[in-house]
Amino acid sequence: MRHRPTDEPLREVRPHPVDAHGNHLPEPAGLDPATVDPAVLSALLHRHGWQRRGGAGGRYGRWTPPGPGNGGTSLLVPESRAFPDSEDLLAEALVALARSGTPSAREVLVGLAVPSDEIHWWRDVPSGPAGAAPWTVEEQLRTAARQMLLAGALAGRERAGYYGARHRRSAAAMLADVLVGPAAHGHLTAFVPVDTGRLLSVRLHQALHAVREAIDYQRATGGMDAFDAAVEAGVSRELTEALVALVRGTEGARIAVEWAPAAAVPEDCASTAEPVEFSPGDLSVLREAGARYLRDEPSVPVRVTGTVVRMRRSGPRGAGTVRLRVIAGAEVPHVRVTLDEEDYRIAGHAHLVGLPVRVHGRLESRGGFRRLTGALGVVPVQVDEAERDRLMKSLQENLDFFEEACSGDDCD
Question: Could you tell me the superkingdom of the organism this chain comes from (predicted)?
């Protein structure tokens, strides 16, 4: 019987927002004109390239969509609700946006339905014949964008130069509400809801500027010291790897974070900022910084409580390796730990009767914080009857594995 290796990559707890919505933004149904702020609508139209082309001053503005050939389409948007027919105009504008074939119209509607910070990525990739691009280009953009969002979510959990498997589940959960639009012409937009994702947007905004400054410092001085200080701003190996994935194979890339017009600008953040730009010339520095973070991140002393899910040793006696599903004590889903003969026997007995164990050790950065070294003091942990029943049920479901692991008097 084959089993997944113990150092397998973490499986996603929740589906990718893009996959969950079939690569499209959901329909922003249920918009009530009575709840729409005219100033927010005007700000969103301006952000997404619509042009104001006159209108009655102090009463309403006439907006036309971006691009050629749209001169016949326009929206009348009141400047405030003081205008007598403001709600009627807003209702007409929402209907026109919903019926519009302009991609930016959908993005404006989403921004109204779910007040969101917008994160934009651009990749300058040489076009193929007739302006076409290989299908892998869009995939690479989406993959890099997701890596970058995850790096921002990780920085919202803790500052570290390298996270490995730590905080992955909680960080991935932060992305569950993020909406992602279609990738077109090397441009992708993510909508991060203010209510659940503002911290992600702030950390990513700060980290991007910090890594840009650190690269510029390295070019000017030859030193990598600025990357050490940049950790406090949210820079990590995970972010440098995301930037490498974004920039590799391009002539350059840009990222911009724009704050939701319906919410206040975050403290210590500029209300408007130019996109942060990166070029292929930055790749060597980014790779060096990532290697530095991986090398220098220290191991962490922990006291882990977990259930035994795998046991293995080479013979019927001596030390063995145990895999624990972590319940408490470390922000990782599983750890591997090598135990001496006595602790290995205790772990086996605890598993047989459906009890978790507690063990002290150091969570090693090598391998992604998936291994506990210097383990000592393995003790069973008492749990209430309901939890014990749940653990025993899990044991029965995986009994075929445990019988294999305990073959040859391995768990006596």
Answer: Bacteria
CA angle 100, 102, 107 (to 5 degrees): 95
Length of the chain: 412
- Is 332 within 8 Å of 339 (Cβ atoms)? no
CB 312 within 8 A of CB 8: no
- Do 412 and 345 meet the contact criterion of CB atoms below 8 Å apart? yes
CA–CA gap between residue 143 and residue 245 (Å, rounded): 8
Q: What is the CATH number of domain 300-405?
A: 2.40.50.590
- Give the neighbor-by-neighbor strand order of the sheet with 116-123: 179-180, 187-193, 116-123, 253-258, 276-278
For the chain, domain boundaries: 21-113, 114-297, 300-405
For 192, phi then psi, to 5°, come to -105, 110
Residue by residue, DSSP assigns 147-206 as HHHHHHHHHHH---S--TTTTHHHHHHHTTT-EE---BTTEEEEEEEHHHHHHHHHHHHH
Q: Are 357 and 379 in contact (CB under 8 A)?
A: yes
pTM: 0.79
Using the structure block, give the residue that is written with the tokens 């959960």.
Answer: 173
- Residue 389: pLDDT above 80? no
Residue type for 340, please? D
User: Amino acid identity of 113?
Assistant: A
Q: Alpha-carbon distance 340 to 362, whole Å?
A: 16
Q: What is the pLDDT of residues 228-277, one digit of tens each?
A: 999 999 999 999 999 999 999 999 999 999 999 989 999 888 888 899 99
Return the exposure string of 376-393: e unless at least 16 CB atoms fall within 10 Å of the residue's CB, then b. eebebeebeeeeeeebee
